[in-house]
Structure formats: C-alpha cells, structure tokens
Amino acid sequence: MARNGEWSFKKVQWTNGGFRKRVINYYKTIEKYKNKYTVLSLCKLFKITRASYYRWCCKGKPEYDLKIDMNLALKIKNIFTNNNGIYGSPRIRIILNNQGLEVSQTKVARIMKIFKLYSIIRVKKMYRKPKEIKTITHGPNYVNRNWSIFLKNECWVTDVSYIPLNKKFAYLSIIKDANTGFIVGHKLSLKNDVELYRKTLEKASFYRNDLSKKLIIHSDNVNQYTSIFAKKYAKRNNIIISLSRPGNSIDNAMCETFFSSLKEEWKQQLKQNNFLDLEKSIDNYIEFYNYERIMVKHKTPPAYVYLKLTQNKKNVSNYVETFL
To answer: Which residues are in the Integrase catalytic domain (predicted)?
Structure first.
C-alpha cells in the first residue's frame, strides 16, 4: 500500500472524491426515507454506520464541494513543492493551521494521496545484534534516554557520521540541544579525530553564556569523547560527560535521528564532487533544519523554541546574532 511517509493511509476511509460524494448521496437517501424505514435498516443497506450519518446531520448536512477541496489541494501542493517534498501530512497540517485554515490530518493525507504527493520517508532498517559488544565503559550514562527531563542548555548530545565523498568519506560532527532539537554546533572534516570535536565545541560555545550552570554532554564511547582533551575541557567549563552504553546506539537516538533525516531528506544534495560543495550543502540543510523545518512536537522550527523567536519574522536566520 502506498504511504504518505509520515502517516499511514490505513486510517483513511475516503480514498477519493467520488467515494465521498457517493456517501453523501447515501446520507440524503436516508434522510428522505427515514420516516418510512428505520435509520438502522437503511444504514445496513448502504453499509455505513449510524454514527457517520448522525455526524453528518450534526454538521448541518453539508454538500460535497469539490471546489473547496481543489483550493485546499493547491495550497497543499505549494507547501509540498516549496519544501522539496520533505513534508508529509502532519507537518503540512501544522502549516495550514498556522495560516488560519483549520483542517484535519486525515483530510490532508487523503488529498495528498489523490494527487500522488508522497513525501520522503525514512526506511526502517532491520535491527542487527552486534557480534561483539565491548563491556568496558569509560564513564556513566547520566542521561539514560530521559531527554524530556532537561531544559534548554542543560543537556547536549553529540556524535559523528560518515558522509560519502569521491569513494572516500567526510566526517560530520554535530552538537544538538536535547530539549529543543536545535543544532548548536557542527563541523565537517576529512579526519575523524579530537580536533574535529574541539572545533565543534568552539562553535557550540557561542550559545552557552552562563558557565556557572552545569551542562551534560552525552555521546558515544569513542576516543574523541573520552580523550584527555575532552576531560580537561569538561572540567574547565563545568561540563559533565555522559556516555552511552557499548553497543546501544539508541542511547544516542537524538543524534541518530538527525543523521537519518539528513541522509534521506538531503540525499541528492549530498552527492557532491568536492569537499567545499559538500560543506556548503550541509550548512544549507542545517540552516533549514534549525530555522524552517517544522517539528511535530513543538509545531515550530527548533529556532523558535531555542532562541525564543516569534513567527512574524520573515527570515529568522538574520536574528541569530542578537541572541549570542
């Protein structure tokens, strides 16, 4: 069955406009003959539920208006194309509601299916248990997947991912705020070493003004995050190091979800021939991710929550420097 990407169509009852128009004709027929026959018998004849008929009556017995649906479909299509096919029905519904148009997610998904607007989906990979799991850990796991208990700038998560580049790899390091999802720092390099982590921390430090408050930085059990530099930097800047358990990538799921979104939603733009073009493409995506991409949880981009920006600003990226 075709999928919208962010929401399953199994819950959609009206798959096309013709079927919906036919159901409304059933309601009119029941309304016409309900004095001669019972509503229950007529609903059984048309194979519909009484609840749906009474719901239609409570709504004022509306007619099927194809013109209204076409106007809505045009707005949905514009939102879909303007965001490179990334948004599915949940995010498009949020945008329409923010524009003052009250519409359900079911209706948006139905229209998207009719016009074959399928968003980019993240394909689930089969879980494979690692052959060998190291039992040695270099520190405790203070976070333990409890992301919701932290406020802004109380917990950052960090990780490194591989980006293909000319039959080799470039390495993308990010630091992400666990509460708001805002990417506070990122750096691309051809080497996966401690220097890459140091430069990422330098970028992220601009968003941390109060060093008296403790900050937890959660990461994997790899050498960059357990190095002498990482421990000295943490001690000097009032930082607590939290490490995932060996062989448990879900412990650092906040970073893994970002890398998954990047590699699926920006798949074509990541196919670059040189390092500078790849770096520019990743910068563009992270700017889109921070300032434009809708989060279903907050119904706004991460920057509106992290930087406390208002939605009436046309280009929020121009206002970043005022909050540093």
So the answer is: 136-310
The answer to whether the beta carbons of residues 3 and 9 sit under 8 Å apart is: yes
Pick 51 or 249 by higher pLDDT.
51
With H, G, I as helix, E, B as strand and everything else as coil, classify residue 244: coil
Average pLDDT of the residues in 121-141? 67
Return the percentage of the chain with pLDDT > 90, whole number.
42
Check residues 168 and 14 and name the one with the higher pLDDT.
168
Q: Taking a C-beta distance cutoff of 8 angstroms, is the pair 14, 110 a contact?
A: yes
What CA dihedral angle connects 112, 84, 97 and 149, to 10 degrees?
110
- Inter-residue long-range contacts of 87-91, CB under 8 Å, 24+ positions, other chains counted: 87/6, 87/119, 87/294, 88/4, 88/5, 88/6, 88/7, 88/112, 88/119, 88/121, 89/4, 89/6, 89/7, 90/6, 90/7, 90/296, 91/6, 91/294, 91/296
Q: Which two tokens stand for residue 177?
A: 């705020």
Alpha carbon 8 to its chain centroid, in Å, reads 16
DSSP, residue by residue, 111-151: HHHHTT-PPP--PPPPP---S------SS--SSTT-GGG--
Of 51, 49, 102, the C-alpha closest to 72 is 102
Across the strands, what pairs with 172?
161, 188
Contact 238, 262 (CB under 8 A): no
Where does the chain show beta strands of DSSP type E? 155-165, 168-177, 183-189, 215-219, 239-243
Of the candidates 149, 143, 72, 54, the one whose C-alpha atom is nearest the C-alpha of residue 114 is 72
Q: What is the pLDDT of residues 190-215, one digit of tens each?
A: 999 999 999 999 999 999 888 888 99
Q: Which domains does the chain have, with CATH numbers?
A: 9-114 (no CATH), 147-323 (3.30.420.10)
Max distance between CA atoms of the chain, in angstroms, equals: 86
Angle at 240 between CA 234 and CA 246, to 5 degrees: 105
